[in-house]
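User: Could you write out the 3D structure of this protein bound to adenosine-5'-diphosphate? I've included everything you need below.
Assistant: Certainly. Input first, then the structure.
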Amino acid sequence: MNKYSQGFEADTGKILNIVINSLYSDRDIFLRELLSNASDAIHKRKFSGQTNPAVLNKSDDTIEIEIDKKLKTIEITDSGIGLAESELAETLGTIAKSGTSSFLEELSGTDSNKDAAKTLIGQFGVGFYSAFMVADKVVVTSTKAGTSKAFIWESDGQSGFEISASDQSRNAGTSIKLFLRKDAKEYLDLAKLRTLVKKFSDHITVPITIKDNENEAEQANSAQALWTRPSSSITGEEYSEFYKSNFGAFDDPYLKIHNKTEGSIDFTNLLFIPKTAPFDLFEPERKTRLSLYINRVFISKDIDGLIPTWLRFVQGILDTTSLDLNVSRELVQNSPVLRKISKSITKRVLSELKKTLKKDPKEYDAFWSQFGKVIKEGLYEDFENRDKIIEIIRVFSNKKADNITIHEYLENMVDGQDSIYYLTADTLKQALSSPHLEGFKSKDIDVLLMTDPIDAFWMSQMAQFNDKKFVSISRDTYDLSEVGSKETKTPKKSKAAKGTIELIKSHIEELVADVVESTSLVDSPVRLIAGEGGLDFNLERILKSQNPEYEGTKKVLEINTSHELIKKLPKKSIEVQKSLSRVLYEQARILDGEMPSDAQKFSEDLIIVSLND
Ligand code: ADP
């Protein structure tokens, strides 16, 4: 076979440059990335050997690092699964995983925002390419397990790579040779590399040895899986390094959950909850990031059903001796053992989150701002855990102008209140200035302001909590006259007003389901409510985005008959009355975050009304 060259895919070169520049100050991590790949490859070979003994390694698993001070190279050799010729081109020739272009967009011009860049880089697993931070040439020689031919992949990390067949016969596995850049000669220092191995890769279960031209090979890591050690013997830094090297993170986790469970099912979990949400949290194809091990043999990074989807941001490791290694992935996936483990870790995560919320609500809110939306999916779809989930959710209290728990809301209900009042809106700003709140403010009744699209769904699905009904203040009908303070600024119904109501109704009959007198408005002249069986605008917007044909329902216009504008209305000419009635209706829509139903007419009406003030 002749040597052949291939260019990198369009994005790859660009990404490489960004990686090299934004990670420059952390370039030690190239070693962590390469060692982690080597260890993965060894685990893959073991796993694949369970069903295909021909690929098994007959001797001991090793990862060797060899420093050549004369040639100024470092070579990392593993006894892993190896890469076939086509795999060399496919896996090392492209970083074009899904979302690469959005990745690039987020990175462009983010020189000032290197932390964000690093987080993204970790998530894309450009691990192998970090080699180019320290090397100006990388040569990968690999023999796929079960075959005898070796192939060579070679690149300067600039434009592309070359692939050729090797004339030497080698054992299965991969070796990666780095020709160090002029400014990276410090990595020829044996002591330095040993320190880095210890720091980044101590937990890798395969022995990692190092040698150079003068010194014999010596093991540099303790080669014990971190999660098998008792939690009390593991330092915070060790946990943190483990998290970073296994899950591509650059910061510490928000939470670490490490337990050993013995009984009818034996398993160990070491779970991490990140501080920041990954970019693909809401992409349908996103898999969970829990690695399953059976008796310390790595099985899979993304077994479905290991953790509910509303906890899909939880990362970590599950190691169990209660499953059989020799079964297929499908059987593992559907086994009752896995279901039990899943239930148990879900409970654990919930109880840990509850604890952290209690300990430091402010810090919890930072976490909540990243993952709250996802957790709320659980309220909607995980009936079994709903009561536990609701205890850890944060909701925005209009009265406190801050996040609270639902329990806090219940504790602070006023006399006569038997419902949980909420308002959904697109933004907090919109909610805060909503006329729907006026009656509640005047009676000092708290309202939960909900701005995530999913809120409207889970609240209507749940219907009630602790015997208290959820009531949407822009949709449901309610009567505040017996709730809270009896002294109220809200208008009393009057006979004289009846005529005005009928008048307005006659002018906008085709636009609304009804026009009624308000008992809750204080400062605003009007508001729209959904009325019996109707949906509020927010829910309608979501439904419309899913089905453009959906037209929505007609609303009920509530009139504040004490408002000056309303009092003046009957005295105007018929033409002005008509325009003013329509303006009032459109204004109520706008306050709910909607467009006017007829923008053209709205602007004409506005002119008529202002000319006749
Ligand atoms: P990631 O490890 O996140 O997938 P990398 O860029 O580090 O991303 O590696 C890309 C792919 O190249 C890996 O998924 C793996 O298939 C392959 N690979 C890298 N290093 C090795 C190795 N030492 N042995 C076998 N395959 C490897």
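The chain has three domains: 4-221, 227-363, 495-611.
User: Perfect, thank you.
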